[in-house]
Specification:
Layout lengths: L5 E2 L30 H4 L2 H4 L18 H30 L4 H26 L11 H10 L9 H20 L16 H11 L3 H16 L3 H17 L5 H7 L6 H31 L10 E2 L15 H4 L11 H6 L4 H14 L7 H6 L16 E4 L6 E4 L6 H20 L12 H15 L2 H6 L10 H15 L2 H17 L7 H13 L1 E2 L24 H20 L15 H11 L7 H9 L7 H6 L1 H13 L29 H30 L4 H25 L10 H11 L8 H20 L1 E3 L5 E3 H11 L3 H14 L5 H17 L5 H7 L6 H31 L10 E2 L30 H6 L4 H14 L7 H6 L15 E4 L6 E4 L6 H20 L12 H15 L2 H6 L10 H15 L2 H17 L7 H13 L1 E2 L24 H20 L15 H12 L6 H9 L7 H6 L1 H14 L32 E3 L2 E3 L1 H32 L1
Parallel strand pairs: 2-5, 8-11
Antiparallel strand pairs: 1-3, 3-4, 6-7, 9-10, 12-13
Helix pairs in contact: 3-4, 6-9, 7-8, 11-26, 14-16, 16-17, 17-22, 20-21, 20-22, 22-23, 23-24, 27-28, 28-29, 28-30, 30-33, 31-32, 33-34, 35-49, 37-39, 39-40, 39-46, 40-45, 43-44, 43-45, 45-46, 46-47
Length: 1312
């Protein structure tokens, strides 16, 4: 059954072959059937006997001569009109109202037509022996067409099987779906139309496209393979019964040319250079988006990236290819809507185009009966656009669910072109009512669209206000056309190359898929994006393969349409480039077109082409002329980019994405992501400001009320992070072009504690707040009632006292009132923190913290750096231990053991510079301490900050804004509790930056001031970045920026410059003194900075259980620092909590990192400042070059990977201890000599040594000891009753042992 139902056959939803019986309508010329028709084929065998053809429609008996043949053909024509009208009407009714009743009516009409075709074809064959002698060649032509039976040649049982196979293949294709990853509900799965087609057209996500591509090829293709093999065998058998070698030869016969295949190959080769240039350009653009991982600039393109399920047309990715984005890219959709165009108006405009050429207007039946819009009365319809000939010479219709878009406007003209063809040849015999060859009908529809799509025509019909005719706009237009027309050509060519090979037997079933991909790579330069093998059947994923629709017609039509276009433009007297031609209103063009259309297929297509174009050959010259400007431009671009034409890496295939198919359900619209990021940035500034302000208020005035407000704002911030974080996670940003958008979404996707349920967020915030409050308000009280906060009292005691017991009082007391009280809360914090980390995709909190450094080897890198520095630390440790030995003696210091942790001038023994006077290498030489001069000159905290501000301005950096001076807390206020720990604050409104510090006028705090001001300078430099980038390049960078300034500020040279040192002594002794003072701060810190998070990482991942918190803390402090507790510790204690960063959940390894990279920065800044001399003497004060170097890096914030910022400053991308070792080189040498001279042991081999208890009780804190004080027993801290029980147990064991010894001795004596 052959309807003249034409559709846009190359779009993927095309027409489907119903039966290949050819009698009645140009046998084999148009196998164009409805997408639903093959579903009926399986019913033929069940229903065929019930629909016997009425005798009135059966052929009569005719004399077997030319006269009889003439009567036969005339009767066939008259009868066929009636049969086909009924059949087409039934099919129309079903396609415009999909009901069971209409389906049955269509089946009956189809069966009747099948009988008609078979009966008349068999009768036509009766003339085979005599027709060769007929004088009327047209009569012979008609008989040849009518006689073709195709599958009707097969016996009934085989015909039934053949039809069933076609029905099954169509059903597989039509019902195939792809389900979202993990989705079980079939109702939520995607069909090819519209979901998968839309995804392929609009998505730019590599994995999402891959999932859609693989899913469709597997679900639609794989089930077809077994059926297809049988189908090929039966189709070949039917064709052979019609006298052809195979079905491929039968299809080629429609083109009536013995050199047809060779002619096509020549045309393809003529077009190949243009295609190769387009391919290379597109490949380069895809490389720019997807990178070298997925695109090989010398290889084929992965087939799923070209905007179409079959990579047959690439216009859907034009947005990535636009040559000149600032120039017009024509899309008149908005203007159509603005002018209130509707579907009917679009068809009227199209009709006016045809009538302007003097062609036939649409008959009234067209307007009365066509379905131009999708009905809104609840009917199910087949929406795919198609044109219909009802064979009564007056009823012609279009079925289209038209939407008001420019693309649909072109489709309207295409479909109307088919109807115009019907109108022109309607008076031909039925058998000749078709295109001159199968490509003609498609070419006629497309040739009109070539005029309609021009800016010139769109301007004429009021859809374009002006026409821009510059070269750049033309290139934009032509590239868009090339992505549709040129990209299609090799695909249009190879489909039937493959099938002809299959039908001829050159391609065996065992090689169906491999040969398919060989041809696709050979001709298209594309490759499968995933490994494919012979279990796959990827040809079956293209409709025309299971639908048995010949495809070479589309290749032919793409060549012919440009030949037609040029001929029509010539006769319409167009001047100018061919791509600008619009034949609108050219009666001469209309006459030429009409002459070609009205003959239908009654004349050889070569003759029609000769009359139309002046040549009887298909050739590519017109197409090449049309695209010459874009061809030349593409060549220039490819030459400039040095891009290879072709794909010499023929066998290259892309890797399977990591984690695939996870993440395929994400949003891949980059514009949507960009808008989301903008929205987030605006909203977040307000939310974060509110929280930071409330946190500042609490930290500078610790009250219950302020704490509650802070917790409320914290919860709002968590909810905000949750809301936007969950939205950010919906994006697959892998293949976004905008690196900033990708980086922001990656950051937002980690919502930290906000991932917890709301009640657990509250619990987390409460737990951390309680620990911070415990820490901040803790005081150690004496028996006399005097209580000491950490700052400044206890810090001062540890820094200045040399009294062993007094130091022990402060050290132990602080741990009892701070850490010990938060142990229970810390356990809960670990549980909640780990849960949040896992909800964010990390194994534990430690894994999350390490991820901030964007390095898979981060832990190993740190360990290597630590080991590189270990000799320096051990030499410093041995030297300090000797000095403490001299002070405290053998009772408290073991020269081969660890150092008691309270003797090093700092509550945590992290910095030892406060005991510098005990171990000054050269007491008689000068040493740097600006404190006395600062006090003498009456410096104030404000003066210290002003001096620091001037330092930064001297480098050309930004001065502190007025808000800083008005709102910072630079001194400890009286009469209210505050958190004294020095900190810099960014309020995220781009103008409010503050420091909170209980500043004391001394040199240590002057250095701290510069450190904190360094943080604020960093804030100022990156304040205009998106809020997600307002952070250090990595967590260590922020700390390093402050410290690197301090390395200059602490030099004698600088202190003299700012009037705090009268004289700079330039001698070895003074240098060693200076370096020792710096080492006691920097080198002494390194193992502590390293072990803090070593401990936490192990707590988070479970290697340190709750029962061993304190024991493992001291094991690490012993291992890395060589320290021991000065009193017995147990698991009732929680000494880690006595350090601010533990209860505050502040990662600490950043400080270790900062202590390494600050020396790398310092060395580079000193080079920029053109410093000459030892690195430790460098002061970058007033060096604009150094300021620009560090300022440019700070401006990046965290917008780039940290190693890029590192490269900007240092020229390399890795952390290294080399600069630090260079800085301390003189001291290293001196320490090695000094320790060797004193016979020092490096390290602490007597690691289990502990100091003797104090001989007298210190003035212990009244709050720290419980009523029943613990006692020491066998190295354990136990309650008195536990110790007493232990003593009795030991006594009994000793008694038993003694008795046993006596008994054994007696026995041994007797044996002797």
């Amino acid at each position: 059954m052959f309807y003249q139902q034409y559709e846009i056959g190359k779009t993927g939803l095309d027409i489907i072959v119903f039966i290949e019986a050819g009698a009645g309508r140009s046998a084999g010329r148009h196998h164009n059937m409805l997408t639903t028709m093959p579903l009926l084929l399986g019913l033929f065998s069940l229903l065929g006997s019930t629909c016997a053809l009425d005798n009135a429609f059966m052929p009569a008996n005719y004399s077997i001569d030319e006269t009889g043949a003439g009567r036969f053909v005339e009767d066939h024509n008259n009868t066929a009109e009636d049969i086909f009208f009924v059949s087409v009407s039934a099919s129309w009714n079903y396609n415009t109202n999909l009901t069971k009743y209409n389906q049955q009516k269509q089946i009956n009409a189809s069966l009747e037509e099948q009988e008609f075709v078979e009966a008349w074809a068999k009768k036509a064959k009766e003339f085979d022996a005599v027709k060769v002698n007929f004088t009327d060649k047209n009569l012979i032509h008609l008989l040849d067409n009518i006689r073709i039976l195709g599958p009707a040649n097969l016996p009934p049982t085989e015909r039934e099987q053949y039809n069933t196979i076609l029905s099954e293949m169509d059903n597989i294709y039509s019902t195939a779906k792809v389900c979202p990853y993990g989705e079980k509900d079939q109702n939520k799965c995607w069909s090819l139309e519209p979901e998968l087609t839309d995804k392929m057209a609009t998505s730019r996500g590599y994995k999402e496209l891959l999932y859609a591509w693989e899913g469709w090829h597997n679900s639609a293709g794989i089930p077809q393979k077994a059926n297809y093999k049988t189908f090929v065998e039966m189709s070949n058998k039917a064709s052979q019964m019609d006298g052809f070698a195979d079905t491929g030869e039968y299809w080629r016969s429609w083109y009536d040319s013995p050199t047809f295949a060779e002619d096509l190959e020549k045309i393809y080769n003529d077009l190949k250079p243009l295609y190769l240039n387009l391919h290379a350009f597109v490949r380069r653009k895809l490389y720019n988006r997807y990178g070298s991982k997925y695109i090989n600039l010398k290889g084929p393109i992965p087939a799923h990236l070209l905007g179409n399920m079959w990579a047959q047309q690439w216009n859907n990715i034009y947005d990535m290819m636009i040559p000149f984005p600032s120039k017009p890219n024509i899309d008149v959709t908005d203007m159509m809507k603005k002018k209130n165009w509707n579907a009917t108006h679009m068809f009227r405009v199209s009709e006016e185009f045809f009538t302007s050429l003097g062609l036939i207007e649409m008959p009234q039946e067209f307007w009365d009966h066509s379905m131009l819009e999708k009905p809104n009365d609840g009917r199910e319809v087949v929406c795919h656009a198609s044109a219909w000939d009802f064979y009564n010479r007056k009823d012609f219709r279009i079925k289209q669910c038209t939407t008001v878009t420019m693309e649909q406007l072109f489709t309207v003209h295409h479909e109307m072109g088919h109807v115009e063809y019907y109108l022109q040849y309607k008076d031909q015999p039925v058998t000749f009512r078709s295109g001159a060859n199968p490509g003609f009908h498609e070419a006629v529809g497309d040739v009109l669209a070539l005029s309609v799509s021009t800016p010139k025509h769109l301007n004429k019909i009021g859809l374009l206000e002006s026409v821009t005719t510059d070269k750049e706009t033309d290139i934009n237009y032509l590239l868009k056309m090339a992505l549709e027309k040129i990209a299609f050509l090799p695909f249009g060519y190879l489909i039937d190359q493959w099938r002809w090979g299959v039908f001829s037997g050159r391609i065996s079933p065992d090689h169906y898929n491999s040969e398919w991909w060989y041809l696709r790579t050979k001709y298209q330069g594309i490759c499968p994006p995933l490994p494919r093998n012979e279990t796959n059947f990827d040809p079956g994923a293209k409709y025309h393969i299971p639908g048995n629709t010949p495809y070479i017609r589309y290749f032919v039509s793409f060549i012919l349409q440009f030949q037609f276009h040029k001929a029509l433009c010539n006769v319409s007297e167009h001047t100018g480039p061919l791509h600008q031609c619009d034949i609108y209103k050219s009666l001469a063009a209309g006459k030429k077109l009409s002459d070609a259309l009205k003959v239908g297929s009654s004349v050889r297509w070569q003759d029609v082409l000769q009359d139309f174009t002046g040549t009887d050959k298909m050739d590519a010259s017109a197409l090449l002329e049309y695209f010459k400007p874009i061809t030349d431009w593409l060549k220039e671009q490819n030459t400039k980019n040095k891009d290879e034409l072709g794909w010499s890496d023929f066998e290259w295939r892309p890797p399977v994405p990591e984690g695939y198919p996870n993440g395929t359900d994400k949003i891949t619209d980059e514009n949507q992501a960009i808008n989301f990021v903008k929205e987030y940035n605006t909203a977040t500034e307000k939310v974060w400001y509110d929280y930071i302000e409330s946190s500042w208020t609490y930290n500078t005035n610790i009250t219950v009320h302020n704490n509650l407000i802070m917790l409320e704002k914290s919860l709002k911030m968590s909810n905000h992070a949750l809301k936007y974080g969950l939205q950010a996670r919906q994006f697959d940003y892998t293949d976004f072009q905008n690196a900033d958008t990708k980086r922001i979404l990656m950051k937002l996707g980690n919502i930290e504690r906000a991932a917890l349920p709301v009640e657990e967020v509250k619990e987390y915030d409460s737990v951390v707040s309680e620990m911070e409050t415990t820490y901040s308000v803790a005081k150690v009280c004496r028996d006399n009632g005097t209580c000491h906060p950490l700052d400044p009292d206890l810090t001062h005691i540890l820094a200045t006292s040399n009294d062993y017991d007094e130091l022990l009082f402060a050290w132990e007391g602080w741990r009892n009132v701070s850490g010990k009280k938060m142990r229970t809360n810390f356990k809960k914090y670990v549980q909640l923190s780990n849960k949040a980390a896992r909800l964010n995709g990390f194994h534990d909190t430690g894994a999350f913290w390490r991820s901030l450094y964007d390095s898979k080897t981060f832990e190993a890198d740190l360990e290597n750096i630590y080991n590189e520095l270990k000799p320096l630390y051990q030499n410093l440790h041995a030297y300090v231990r000797r000095a403490l030995f001299k002070k405290y003696g053998t009772k408290y210091i073991n020269l081969k053991g660890p150092i008691p942790a309270h003797l090093l001038g700092n509550m945590w023994a992290q910095s030892w510079n406060n005991i510098y006077k005990l171990l000054m290498p050269y007491p008689d030489a000068s040493h740097v301490d600006a404190t006395p001069e600062m006090i003498k000159q009456k410096w104030t905290p404000v003066k210290m900050f002003q001096e620091s501000d001037e330092f930064f301005q001297s480098l050309g950096l930004i001065k502190m804004p007025e808000e800083f001076w008005n709102k910072s807390m630079l001194e400890k206020p009286a009469n209210r509790e505050v958190v004294c720990h020095a900190s810099a604050w960014d309020f995220f409104n781009r103008k409010d930056f503050r420091i909170k510090q209980c500043t004391v006028v001394n040199m240590d705090d002057l250095v701290t001031v510069h450190h904190e001001m360094g943080h604020v300078q960093y804030f100022l430099q990156y304040k205009d970045l998106p809020i997600s980038f307002r952070d250090g390049a990595n967590p260590g960078f922020h700390e390093a920026i402050g410290d690197v300034m301090a390395l200059s500020v602490s030099t004698p040279k600088h202190l003299k410059t700012i009037g705090l040192l009268n004289e700079v002594m330039d001698n070895k002794e003074s240098d060693i003194n200076y370096l020792m003072s710096i080492a006691l701060d920097k080198i002494a810190f390194l193992p502590f900075g390293y072990l803090m998070d070593q401990w936490r990482w192990k707590v988070f991942d479970g290697r340190i259980p709750e029962s061993d918190y304190n024991r493992e803390w001291w094991n690490l402090r012993l291992k890395y620092q060589g320290l021991c507790p000065p009193v017995l510790r147990s698991e009732e204690d929680f000494d880690p909590g006595a350090k601010f960063h533990i209860p505050s959940s502040v990662p600490y390894v950043r400080y270790f990192v900062s202590f390494i990279i600050q020396f790398q920065f310092h060395e580079s800044l000193c080079k920029a400042a053109e410093h000459v001399g030892p690195l430790y003497k460098c002061d970058i004060y007033k060096s604009r070059a150094a300021g620009k170097l560090i300022g440019d890096a700070m401006k990046l914030g965290s917008s780039k990977p940290w190693y890029e910022a590192m490269r900007m400053i240092t020229g390399n991308t890795s952390m290294s201890a080399a600069s630090l070792l260079t800085y301390f080189e003189p001291l290293i040498t001196w320490l090695e000599v000094e320790n060797k001279k004193n016979g020092e042991t490096l390290g602490w081999p007597e690691y289990d040594w502990t100091p003797a208890f104090a001989s007298t009780e210190p003035s212990a804190p009244t709050t720290s000891a419980p009523a029943n004080s613990n006692v020491a027993f066998l190295g354990l801290s136990l309650a008195p009753d536990q110790a007493k029980a232990g003593q009795w147990i030991l006594f009994v064991l000793a008694l038993v042992l003694a008795i046993a010894v006596i008994i054994i001795s007696i026995k041994m004596f007797k044996r002797k």
